[in-house]
Amino acid sequence: MTKILFICHGNICRSTMAHFVFQDMINKAGLADEFLIDSKATSTEALGESTHYGTVKKLREVGVPVLPHTSTQITKKDYRDFDYIIAMDTNNLRNLDRILSGDPKKKIRKLLSFAGKDGDIADPWYTGDFDATYRDVLEGCEGLLKELTTKH
Q1: Over the stretch 6-40, which tens digit does the pLDDT of each residue have?
Q2: Of 2, 12, 106, 136, whose CB has the highest number of CB atoms within 10 Å?
């Protein structure tokens, strides 16, 4: 089983969006038994909160099921347990490096790297643009699914 952990700052907007979008993709592809998907935060600011209403609204709009969720922070144990740790932006990468004390197994990448891009996924908490965030998340998740299904 391949274990994937999506990461953003608070684990209420972008990482949950990626988590639910990717879960929906693998469910529709009949691959749910081959993957474990989760999401977490690098910060402690939103711990215990559920998915942001803007993310919920956007996912319902596009027909992606919204799963039960409570924000939690990544730990060193998560680094051991997950095969892929996928960050939404460069700040997440810096925070992951600090929290995890590096990435010796090269498990950490930005989501848009799976779409062949070096960019960051903008945080809709600040931009208010959940449509743009969804487009980038979808593109990254499609690239991730393609890479993973090609490897398997």
Answers
A1: 999 999 999 999 999 999 999 999 999 999 999 99
A2: 12
